[in-house]
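Feature request disguised as a bug: please show the residue count (340) next to FecR family protein in the output. Example input:
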Amino acid sequence: MSRKTFGLLLQKYLRGECTPEEKTFVEHWYGLLETETGESGQALDMDELESRLWNQIQNKMETEESTDPGRVVSLRATRYRWIGIAATLLLIGGWFFADLVPLRSLTSSNHTNWIEQANTSAKPLIVRLEDGSTVQLAAQSSLRFPKHFSANERTVYLTGDAFFSIQKMPTRPFYVHTGEVVTKVLGTSFFVRTEADTRQVRVEVVTGRVAVYAQQEDKQPTTNGVVLSPNQAATFFAQEQHFVTGLVEAPKIIRSPEAKQKQVSFQFDDAPLATVLAQLEQAYGIDIEVENEQQNNCPLTADLTNQSLYTQLDIICAALKSTYEVQGTTILISGKGCID
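Example output, currently without the count:
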């Protein structure tokens, strides 16, 4: 394999286009770089990472040659030395080096790099991942995750319930596999809850955006999926193979990092309903619509501060003699308006 061929392979890996065998090959050397030098490939740019990995491979070959200096190595043996190195490292077979015949299937030790954490207690268990993300694992739940995440993605497997707080890494999406459901995020916080009897999986978003989709038996994602924003939820019904979207049971105010310490005021004095609803929409990130346009002009005087969203809506509807209902991810307010 030439330096150029290896560089192209590494770029292919970072784009997520490698075959499983190619991915295994790159991840071995990536992990070995951290183990032997103590350096994390995450801290290196593309050119430096490629150089470090290539030098490591070359050093391995030179070490192998120096163990038997009197040996005569033919050109044919040199070309196939890569196969010997790969075999001693227990890489998965099927890898095609440039201009070489494919290897036969070898025994893989890749699974030994995975950790399974089970919570057998009655209290939540905090699991800290190597990228700085945390998982609050509910009782009687378990999480399987790699000791080292790959360079282009972060993948874990959940059984049960958990709350995820994921470090934002746009070039390394985070995947949570739960039964037939895959949750994909770049950096956010969300709940994943599973129902063992019905195989229902529910995802509830606290911050950021989350893509949730069903996965086929061949592990390829389907078009059956939804994108969720804060305070939105989706439940996957396994038997019907579809998602139903809605709102979380207790929507929270979406605060920017700068405004987290500030109290949000919902005090209104003869404010038109349209103004009140616009402020609620902005605070919770939830669409609120009126069935009758005349309702928008109805004045409201009330202090809704420190009340939950649904309590706020109860107060509004009581004052304006209206009703509301949740329709999917939208709240609809119905009433006759306030014009006599």
